[in-house]
Design brief:
This is Creatinase. It is built from 10 helices and 16 strands. By secondary structure, it is of the alpha/beta class. A hairpin with a 6-residue loop joins strand 2 and strand 3. The termini are far apart. The model has no long low-confidence stretch (mean pLDDT 97).
């Protein structure tokens, strides 16, 4: 069967090698992954099949990971992964959402077949895709195994992007520029919010003339009016934009599951002075902090630099101001590793990609202006070229 791989096989092998280093350092002899992004990272698997149990098993000895999933998804593994036939395992349909058995029984039998039932097994305990029932069944089926928490083990390997990954993220950035401009052009007084949102979604998938896009991990966040006073609300499908609306836009381009997110703010009418002041403070702080970023400093030092920019302005930002991002599936394009906040002593290294997102949410409205950046050998590089300003339509 013809394979469609997004990266060279040598890159996948290098990823496996780096993950094995972390496994060995953490005393893990078999790693069990269920996070779709981590599965994709090590194997290339790219199916929308995570509503049923699926995963990857990686041992220290084997040259390839083992993919398992629903039998009808097995051809997806044959098409999208670099794995040979012996490393693709499809389970029968009677395991799917069954009241009488559980897919982890099948997984336990695979582990027994590999002779790892008495080994140290790492599992992603704090992960969207790993349930308490899965953990209970594995413990029952593998009573002699020692289970270790491997949450985010692969995610930390993913923080340093390869040149090929960065290329896809640059492409996602070009898509995002088009998406953001589409949103700003579509939104105006009297326009249905649903109509503007539909154009944004279409632009995300259409991409640019040279290449297409994917549906990002997060649905377009496009709140207006009082809904901008909080994070993560989307559009109101039964509302038209009105004069005096603040509209927050937190959107992303996506290319082969690699993201480039961006936030901007639009005002319909003459902005109040309070909003103009907040916009200026945030944008100045954003630019000053980006100039400060370079390899070798810590995540918390970046946040401290940002916080110093707010001193004496009356603007406060109690939550983190950024996070690592890249390859992901719903519900989040963040990598759940680096956070720009006090206490995070992660050292920034070349190849890291971080979304600097100093969103401000007040009782009546919010303001967002963010930048995704790549840590380089000498500083940082903004991935997206889009004006940093409060956009106004009168």
């Amino acid at each position: 069967m013809h394979k469609v791989l997004r990266f060279d096989i040598l890159e996948y092998k290098e990823r496996v090698r780096r993950v094995k280093e972390r496994m060995d350092a953490n005393g893990i002899e078999l790693l069990f992954l269920v996070d779709p992004a981590n599965m994709n990272y090590l194997t290339g698997y790219d199916g929308w099949s995570f509503y049923v149990h699926q995963g990857v098993l990686l041992t220290l000895e084997d040259d390839q990971p083992h993919w398992f999933g629903r039998q009808q998804d097995s051809n997806g593994a044959r098409i999208t992964t670099w794995l040979d036939e012996e490393h693709i395992h499809g389970y029968p349909d009677f395991y799917v959402q069954s009241r009488y058995t559980h897919t982890m029984v099948y997984v336990a039998n695979l582990i027994k077949e590999f002779k790892y039932e008495n080994k140290n097994i790492g599992v992603e305990m704090d992960n969207y895709w790993y349930s308490a029932k899965s953990m209970n069944v594995l413990r029952q089926e593998l009573p002699c195994a020692v289970f270790k928490d491997a949450t985010n083990l692969v995610n930390w390997v993913r923080t340093i992007k390869s040149p090929a990954e960065i290329n896809y993220m640059r492409q996602a950035a070009r898509i995002c520029e088009h998406v953001m401009q589409t949103a700003i052009d579509a939104i105006d007084i009297g326009i249905w919010e649903k109509d503007a949102a539909s154009k944004v979604v279409a632009a995300q998938i259409a991409g640019v003339d040279e290449y297409g896009g994917d549906s990002p991990a997060i649905f377009p966040i496009m709140p207006s009016d009082i809904r901008t006073s909080t994070a993560h609300l989307t559009f109101d499908p039964d509302r038209k934009y009105q004069k005096g609306d603040v509209v927050l836009l937190e959107l992303s381009g996506c290319r082969f599951r690699y993201h480039a997110p961006l936030s901007r703010t639009l005002y319909l009418g003459e902005p109040p002075e309070g909003l103009r002041k907040i916009a200026q403070v945030v944008i100045n702080g954003l630019q000053t902090t980006l100039d400060f970023i370079k390899p070798g400093i810590t995540a918390e030092e970046v946040e401290l630099r940002w916080r110093k920019c707010l001193e004496g302005t009356g603007v406060e930002k109690p939550s983190r101001v950024g996070y690592a991002f890249g390859l992901n599936y719903v519900p989040d394009w963040g990598e759940h590793t680096v956070s720009l906040r006090p206490g995070d002593k992660t050292i920034l290294r070349p190849g890291m990609t971080i979304h600097f997102m100093p969103g401000i949410w007040l009782d009546e409205f919010g303001f967002e202006c963010s930048e995704p950046f790549l840590v380089t050998e000498k500083g940082c590089e903004k991935l997206i070229n889009f004006p940093e300003e409060l956009f106004i339509k009168k």
